[in-house]
Known about the structure:
By secondary structure, the chain is of the alpha+beta class. The chain is built from 18 helices and 22 strands. Among the domains are: 94 residues, CATH 2.40.50.140; 127 residues, GAD-like domain (Gyrase A, domain 2, 2-Layer Sandwich), CATH 3.30.1360. The chain has an eight-stranded mixed beta sheet with strand order 6-9-10-22-21-20-17-11, with helices on both faces. A five-stranded mixed beta barrel has the order 1-2-3-5-4. Strands 12-13-16-14-15 form a five-stranded antiparallel beta sheet.
Amino acid sequence: MQETKSRVKRSYTSCGELNAGNIGDTVTIKGWVNRRRDHGGLIFLDLRDRYGITQVVANPENAPEAHRTAEGVRGEFVLAVTGEVGRRPEGTENPNMATGEIEVVVSTIDVLNPSKTPPFYVNEESDVDESLRLRYRYLDIRHPRMQRNLRIRHQAVKFIRDYLDDRDFLEIETPIMVKSTPEGARDYVVPSRLYPGEFYALPQSPQQLKQLLMISGVDRYYQIARCFRDEDLRADRQPEFTQLDLEMSFVDREEVLELTEGLFREMFKQIAEKPLQQTTFPRMSYHDSILRYGTDKPDVRFGLEISDVSQVIQDSEFGVFANTVSSGGVVRGFAIPGRAEIPRSQVDALTEAAQGFGAKGLVWIGLESGENGLAARSPIAKFLSDGEVRGLADATGASAGDLMLFVADAEDRAAEVLGRLRNHVAEQYNLIDESVHAFVWILDFPLFEWDEDAQRWDAAHHPFTSPMDEDIPYLDSDPGRVRAKSYDLVLDGYELGSGSIRIHDRSIQNRMFGLLGYSEEQVEARFGHLLRAFEYGAPPHGGIAPGIDRTIMLLAGEQNIREVIAFPKNQSGQDLLMGAPSPIEPEQLDELHLQLNLPPEPDEENS
């Protein structure tokens, strides 16, 4: 992807804007040497900047001094080249380049800065260790793929700002140093020099601040917000990340969904290289998502929907199935089209994968055409009646030639295993339609989750999420039954953003904190400022916070959000470019009234 011709007036010409219309012009271009070719007389240099590449040619007969300079030039040297734009000789044109019809015949070359030999090739796609790339990130960003990714990020954020500005939103910045009110991941904390022993926290999100803005009469707020969470990292997670924080007053769930859906539909229409599978985003309940896909962030670009077959085989002669159902568990599975004849080695590999996901085992049944309809090819075939085989096929939508996979376990374990196995199978057999993007809304989440270890209820989303009005009577009597006015936006199997209609009534908020096990003292210390604000005319309000990094990752077709962040941390949370985290001077610790209590070194523990 190449940038459009620059609209900016410069004292020089960019490397991507010259074409046949400039033939005969004298120009100066500046950039990095992308490639050098010495043909024994003529020296060709490809000069690169973020707008493109222009070929320049140094001829010893026309410009001997410039030619001598070109002889000493190497890759990544920074040059200023002046010369006349000419047409490339017939047969040497490059139709894949915007500047492919022309070249600049050099009159002068000025080396603005030489370069050492880079630790990896900047001008070509190669398999470079990520640690090396992050250590030399300023070189890595020169690569066309990184330039493209950062350009997509800019375009998406600009689109968001323009879209929301047209709909009366105000962009308002909230503080980076706030009060620590831990109710989710661990906070990053900042010690105060002026108040010894006291700390600021870096915000996990501006949740309470945006609610306070709604109480302040700012009815439509957004922010491209920097957020911080001290949690274990993975490919789609960073310790510091960016989200679109968005909140509105006097809205219900439908209005938030409508605005968010319109924003993402138009953004992907303008920026994404792939179309949307559906321009109206499907909706499903949390319960249906877990049942059909085994997860609350389903990838709906392929089938393999999970079915519950417990009723079909509850009286089966196969003891594993019957005993699981009789003890309160479930039997669930899905069918893989056209895979009934896969080799036993592949079946064993699928079983091993399922066990790696937490399954006790995996039952497979290949369907074949038989005298009485369908016949089963499986180690458990002798335990299944013809009616049970037909029932399993009907439940999973399978037919002759398909392979059915089943897991028998507790409901939550079966869902998790099959959800992960479903994704594994889709990747293994290339069943995902990679030509499209697929959004889906997940609604009607439970308000609470039971923490078995702590023997208490936790907020499934966060403690400021409003319960469904009709479920409020169950808050005290049956908290597990209460549904939340929350919603998740899912894209291609990734949770893109979560949101909810918030609690704006102090009495409901107090009941929520009580159910979560907070004492009155804890509530006052952590949330007193918000509860007091509720007493001064808090409007109904709600919003959503989609992740910018994940959005750009999917727009750019990357598998890792580090590829769409200019200066990310590695998977261990380290900044390899600047060497952070790092020790600080003893004088700084003294100023902050801090003493270190470091764990002993390994050799000290063993001594």
